């Protein structure tokens, strides 16, 4: 018996020795090996430029591929990339891009206009990212290094959207999508090495990149199914950086001396929709009352440990057109007054629907409390996301709590939320206002930046007064990284790993 | 002649947290070489307990032997350890149980089960093939074709299964065989066959036997001596003649025999035995049969009866003490 | 014997057909369109319509079912995933080895731990050891596996840095998930083995063996154990099936890219081809496992063997 016990103990100790050895060397070696291990809570759809719109799909695209231009999401500042320069026709519908002649693809070939045109067409036809090129009528190669893009109509935000379109190797892609996904070819700073087990992606710096070679030699991206596992992996030192930490895990992660957590502004926001075609939301006073009745800071504290920006504005507050627009302050007395004026007999019972996937349950409960204070009883019903979105698209849901985000930081992204044209997509509140419609269509093609700003501000002021939605908060991304890593998380999830380096 | 087996004042109790069961209360008997003793009594009388005690197969947790000795060939078995008992079991003393349907391992061939008995006691160092030969021999002895040794128990009928059980028990030619109700579970016709076979084997091998049964017909065919057991005591003991056609009997024996006519003139009338055996968890003062005895006296409830002996015949009853006095 | 095997294999077909019908119907009847789930909330009607047309989702239920069955029967074509457009079987076969490894390793360890401790517990019935083991088994059987998994991660990954908290790269990454699954399964097996053993030990033939002069040890290993294993083997087979399901939860906790996670995501997306193919795959696998269990059973128990042969 003693002998058996001794054997078992020896085995356990040997086991732990072995286990301890390898995991340690993996973690501390990152900086020395000039390797970055990034963890992300996201799935991957594909390695090409047009299939999928998960966060990770975009991260990969920014490693493997290049856009024609990079546009700063807020300032609008343009940085040339594959395009050396471009000109715009007087009527603002034809953009002509001159490509750099020296861009090499991962397989050694040189970039030509054919690659660009092919990629733009792919993007346009994609159901995921096609909306980025909805303004484009056609693209054609004038010669090997010149691409001409014609728009349907002048579109002010075109360059911003173009910076989210990437170029891949036409030749490699024509050979077949399945084969391409096994070995994607682009001209970005990193090239594809391997994709193992459906959860680990390895990339290597491309030494023939047309700009300086990427500072970090190897990138390993690990995909996680949920944020807690991500946070734990970051805390235990298995990752150098983690994108998408949950506020719940924030304290644990940030308490680690070696880890820095950055709050990155995004366009993601949480809001209530109120279907104007149903009672009692057909009365503007009721919608306004609800906007006054919600204590947004309280909701944010309850659900996200206060991490976020409480706001009632529909357009993202990072945009200049939101400056000076009046917000709904927390005022339960005003809310009660408005409800009375609207002739609503209290208590009023409303049923709100949420999706299981989004996880807004805590927000819903906090909102429930806020509204209870003014005599509105909210019933919370959780639906499967398919059911929820189907219902919202067909206009069957009077009251819902959802989260949304936009890809570009641009007011035109909100068009579908306030227009009749968005009834089957984003206009959950079935809001229609002819003035707003006119303003937003006009602003879409307005060339002058300042004029455009004014138009959107006017539209927003009307929208806020009509209160088709009750926006609760904007939420930032919480991204963690080790102290000795230089990071540049950009904005709204647009970051280039090319910009990361070891100190 | 030395006794093969001598049981002296054996007491066996089962102790649980709640109560104590007084299963065997001072039992004594002897067996000679070649003799067959029948242990007769109702269910719960203690017959099986006595035989398990001999082989020390009682439940370790609950069984206690506070008093008594069991001498086998001069050695007290109760002094022996497990390893020594293992040598005795199957080799010098064998036991067969009541229900042949469950007594055999269903997923082992009968040949292997017989061979196991031989291998466990392979003092002569027989080789595997020699053991196999012996298995064949033993099967022939009980009337089963040796080719069937690769078959499984479920492929045999009840009677054949019992033969296998007997084969296993006799494979090592033990000196004492304890058979606990060997034919109770079989049909009457098969019963006769098996009994005949047992009798023949007994003569062939010279085995002594303790035959536990409640069937007096069986006893009359096979046994030399008989012990009648009631509530853990032997109430009557003697040769077959003594017990079947003797002058005096214990009232319980009379009840057992029922309609069997006595050979002597002093025939007692047929009487059913009313009532049930006493609660074994309670200690008893006086005679254990008192509540059911048609001849009960006041002394029966006070004093435990002593044994009235007449030659080889013994009866444990106050009745005869009295009669003797009066005689 | 072969006839029996062939018969069982043929019987699998109606089973799979039944599974197919049920899953297809449930997926079709529950609310939610794959288009909307996959393309996202911001997609407009035109994109949705294009998607539906591309994947034949605008046809009626009987038409869709018929087309699906037709493709399978004529070309063995189970379709491509709506989301990733990859052939579904490639996806399944790519993810399957990990889940299989997880399930097999945990069955193996749970069997070793559960059966050994179950035997010990039964043999030493009423002792303190037996009591301790039984209570421990009950505790572990009641602990939800995801909680246990998270606790193990907190302890071994976070604090002790002994094992990775996620992934399936090295053998170390399998340790904690297998442990989690194995412990839960072992608890059940321990109790099953214990009660099977206790029942077997009370059997008459055990007494016969003792009466032959066999030592208590012999009796346990040569007679009792083999007989007690019969119900345990069946239990193991079913346990394997449950492990495949339990793997889903564990794969989420430990971020392991196995078949479980693939199915969950596919169901959420209402990715018909992927869901159908995955579930059919698992159903077929389960049938196969049960067939093997039955054959093993026949191998151990000659009474069953003769029934099959006749």
Runs of chain C with pLDDT <50, length 5+? none
Shape category of chain B: globular
Classify the secondary structure makeup of chain B into a structural class: alpha/beta
CATH H-level homologous superfamily name of the largest domain in chain C: MetI-like
Largest protein interface? A-C, 59 and 56 residues
Q: What would the principal axes of the Cα set say about the shape of chain C?
A: flat
Helix content of chain B: 25-40%
Q: Report mean pLDDT of chain C, rounded to a whole number.
A: 86
The name CATH uses for the topology of the largest domain in chain C is MetI-like fold
CATH architecture designation of the domain at 3-86 and 212-325 in chain B = 3-Layer(aba) Sandwich
The count of β-strands of chain C is: 0
CATH superfamily of the domain at 3-86 and 212-325 in chain B: P-loop containing nucleotide triphosphate hydrolases
Major sheet characteristics of chain C? none
* Class from secondary-structure proportions of chain C: mainly alpha
Question: Residue ranges of chain B: pLDDT <50 for 5 or more in a row?
Answer: none
Report strand % of chain B.
15-25%
Please summarize the sheet with the most strands of chain B: 8 strands, mixed
Q: Spell the H/E element sequence of chain C.
A: HHHHHHHHHHHHH
Spatial order of strands in the largest sheet of chain B: 6-7-8-3-9-10-12-11
Summarize the structure.
By secondary structure, chain A is an alpha+beta fold.
Q: Mind explaining what this structure looks like?
A:
Chain A has 503 residues and is α+β, with helices and mostly antiparallel strands. In chain A, 34% of the residues lie in helices and 22% in strands. In chain A, a hairpin with a 5-residue loop joins strand 4 (83-88) and strand 5. Chain B is of the alpha/beta class and 327 residues long. Chain B has a domain at 3-86 and 212-325: P-loop containing nucleotide triphosphate hydrolases (Rossmann fold, 3-Layer(aba) Sandwich), CATH 3.40.50.300. An eight-stranded mixed β-sheet of chain B has the order 6-7-8-3-9-10-12-11, with helices on both faces. In chain B, helix 4 crosses helix 5, helix 4 (110-120) packs parallel to helix 6 (158-170) and helix 6 runs parallel beside helix 7. Chain C is mainly α and 310 residues long. Chain C has 13 helices and no strands. Chain C is flat, with a radius of gyration of 24 Å. Chain C starts with a helix and ends with a helix. Chains in contact: A-C, B-C. At the A-C interface, helix 1, helix 6, helix 7 and helix 13 of A face helix 2, helix 3, helix 5, helix 7 and helix 10 of C.
């Amino acid at each position: 018996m003693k002998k058996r016990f001794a054997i078992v103990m020896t085995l356990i100790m040997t086991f732990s020795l072995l286990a301890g050895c390898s995991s340690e060397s993996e973690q501390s070696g990152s900086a020395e090996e000039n390797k970055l291990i990034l963890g992300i809570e996201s799935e991957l759809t594909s390695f090409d430029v047009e299939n999928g719109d998960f966060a990770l799909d975009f991260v990969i695209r920014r490693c493997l591929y290049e856009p024609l231009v990079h546009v700063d999401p807020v300032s609008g500042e343009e940085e040339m990339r594959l395009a050396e320069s471009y000109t715009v026709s007087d009527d603002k519908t034809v953009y002509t891009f001159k490509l750099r002649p020296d861009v090499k693809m991962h397989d050694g070939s040189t970039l030509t206009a054919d690659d660009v045109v092919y990629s733009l067409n792919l993007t346009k036809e994609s159901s995921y990212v096609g909306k980025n090129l909805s303004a484009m009528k056609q693209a054609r190669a004038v010669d090997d290094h010149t691409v001409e893009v014609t728009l349907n109509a002048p579109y002010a935000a075109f360059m911003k959207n173009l910076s989210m379109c990437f170029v891949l190797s036409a030749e490699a892609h024509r050979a077949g999508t399945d084969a391409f996904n096994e070995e994607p070819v682009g001209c970005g700073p990193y090239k594809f090495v391997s994709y193992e087990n459906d959860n680990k992606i390895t990339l290597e710096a491309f030494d023939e990149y047309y700009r300086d070679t990427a500072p970090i030699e190897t990138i390993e991206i690990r995909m996680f199914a949920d944020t807690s596992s991500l946070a734990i992996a970051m805390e235990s030192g298995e990752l150098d950086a983690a994108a998408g930490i949950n506020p719940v895990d924030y304290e644990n992660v940030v308490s680690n001396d070696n880890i820095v957590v950055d709050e990155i502004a995004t366009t993601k926001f949480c809001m209530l929709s109120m279907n104007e075609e149903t009672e009692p939301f057909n009365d503007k006073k009721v919608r306004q009352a609800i906007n006054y009745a919600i204590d947004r800071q309280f909701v944010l504290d309850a659900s996200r440990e206060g991490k976020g920006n409480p706001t009632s504005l529909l357009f993202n507050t990072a945009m200049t057109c939101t400056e000076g627009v009046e917000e709904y302050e927390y005022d339960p007395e005003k809310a009660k007054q408005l409800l009375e004026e609207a002739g609503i007999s209290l208590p009023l019972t409303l049923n709100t629907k949420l999706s299981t996937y989004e996880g807004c349950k805590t927000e819903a409960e906090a909102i429930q409390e806020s509204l209870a204070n003014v005599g509105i009883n909210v019933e919370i019903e959780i639906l499967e996301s398919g059911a929820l979105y189907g219902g919202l698209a067909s206009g069957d849901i009077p009251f819902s709590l959802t989260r949304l985000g936009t890809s570009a930081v641009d007011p035109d992204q909100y068009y579908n939320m306030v227009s009749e044209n968005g009834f089957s997509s984003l206009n959950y509140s079935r809001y229609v206002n002819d003035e707003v419609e006119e303003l937003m269509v006009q602003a879409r093609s307005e060339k002058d930046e300042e004029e455009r700003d004014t138009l959107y501000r006017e539209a927003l002021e009307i929208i806020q007064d009509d209160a088709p939605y009750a926006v609760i908060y904007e939420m930032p991304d919480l991204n963690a990284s080790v102290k000795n890593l230089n990071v540049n998380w950009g904005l709204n999830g647009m970051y280039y790993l090319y910009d990361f380096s070891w100190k | 002649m030395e006794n093969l087996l001598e049981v002296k004042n054996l007491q066996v109790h089962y102790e649980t947290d709640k109560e104590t069961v007084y299963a065997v209360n001072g039992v004594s008997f002897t067996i000679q070489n070649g003799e067959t003793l029948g242990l007769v009594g109702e269910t719960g009388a203690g017959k099986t307990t006595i035989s398990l005690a001999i082989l020390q197969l009682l439940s370790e947790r609950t069984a206690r032997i506070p008093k008594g000795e069991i001498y086998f060939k001069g050695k007290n078995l109760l002094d022996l350890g497990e390893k020594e008992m293992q040598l005795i079991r199957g080799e010098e003393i064998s036991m067969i149980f009541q229900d042949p349907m469950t007594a055999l391992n269903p997923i082992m061939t009968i040949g292997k089960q017989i061979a196991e008995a031989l291998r466990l006691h392979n003092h002569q160092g027989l080789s595997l093939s020699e053991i196999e030969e012996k298995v064949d021999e033993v099967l022939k002895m009980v009337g089963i074709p040796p080719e069937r040794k690769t078959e499984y128990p479920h492929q045999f009928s009840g009677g054949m299964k019992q033969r296998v059980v007997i084969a296993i028990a006799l494979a090592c030619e033990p000196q004492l065989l304890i058979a606990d109700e060997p034919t109770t579970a079989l049909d009457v016709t098969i019963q006769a066959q098996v009994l005949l076979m047992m009798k023949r084997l007994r003569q062939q091998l010279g085995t002594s036997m303790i035959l536990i049964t409640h069937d007096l017909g069986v006893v009359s065919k096979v046994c030399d001596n008989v012990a009648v057991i009631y509530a853990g005591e032997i109430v009557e003991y003697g040769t077959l003649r003594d017990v079947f056609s003797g002058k005096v009997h214990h009232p319980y024996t009379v009840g057992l025999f029922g309609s069997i006519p006595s050979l002597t003139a002093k025939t007692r009338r047929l009487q059913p035995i009313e009532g049930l055996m006493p609660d074994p968890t309670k200690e008893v003062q006086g005679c254990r049969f008192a509540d059911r005895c048609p001849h009960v006296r006041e002394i029966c409830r006070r004093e435990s009866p002593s044994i009235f002996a007449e030659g080889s015949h013994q009866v444990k009853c106050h009745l005869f003490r009295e009669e003797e006095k009066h005689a | 014997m072969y006839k029996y095997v062939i018969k069982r294999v043929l019987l699998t077909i109606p089973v799979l057909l039944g599974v197919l019908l049920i899953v297809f119907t449930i997926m079709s009847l529950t609310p939610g369109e794959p288009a909307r789930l996959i393309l996202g909330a911001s997609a407009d009607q035109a994109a949705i319509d294009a998607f539906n047309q591309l994947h034949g989702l605008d046809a009626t239920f009987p038409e869709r079912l018929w087309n699906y069955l037709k493709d399978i029967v004529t070309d063995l074509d189970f379709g491509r995933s709506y989301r990733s457009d990859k052939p579904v079987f490639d996806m399944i076969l790519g993810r399957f080895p990990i889940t299989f490894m997880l399930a097999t390793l945990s069955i193996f360890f749970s069997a070793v731990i559960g059966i050994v401790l179950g035997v010990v517990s039964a043999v030493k019935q009423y002792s303190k050891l037996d009591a301790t083991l039984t209570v421990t088994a009950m505790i572990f059987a009641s602990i939800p596996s995801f909680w246990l998994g998270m606790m193990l991660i907190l302890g071994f990954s976070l604090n002790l840095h002994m094992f990775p908290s996620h992934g399936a790269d090295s053998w170390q990454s399998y340790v904690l998930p297998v442990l989690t699954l194995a412990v839960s399964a072992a608890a059940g097996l321990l109790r099953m083995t214990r009660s099977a053993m206790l029942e077997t030990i009370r059997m008459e033939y055990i007494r016969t063996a003792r009466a032959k002069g066999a030592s208590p040890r012999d009796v346990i290993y040569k007679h009792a154990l083999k007989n007690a294993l019969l119900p345990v083997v069946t239990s193991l087979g079913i346990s394997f099936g449950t492990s495949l399901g339990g793997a889903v939860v564990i794969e989420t906790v430990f971020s392991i890219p196995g078949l479980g996670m693939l199915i969950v995501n596919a169901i959420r997306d209402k990715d018909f081809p992927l869901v159908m193919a995955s579930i059919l795959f698992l159903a077929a696998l389960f049938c196969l496992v049960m067939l093997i269990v039955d054959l093993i059973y026949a191998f151990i128990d000659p009474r069953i063997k003769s029934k099959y042969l006749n």
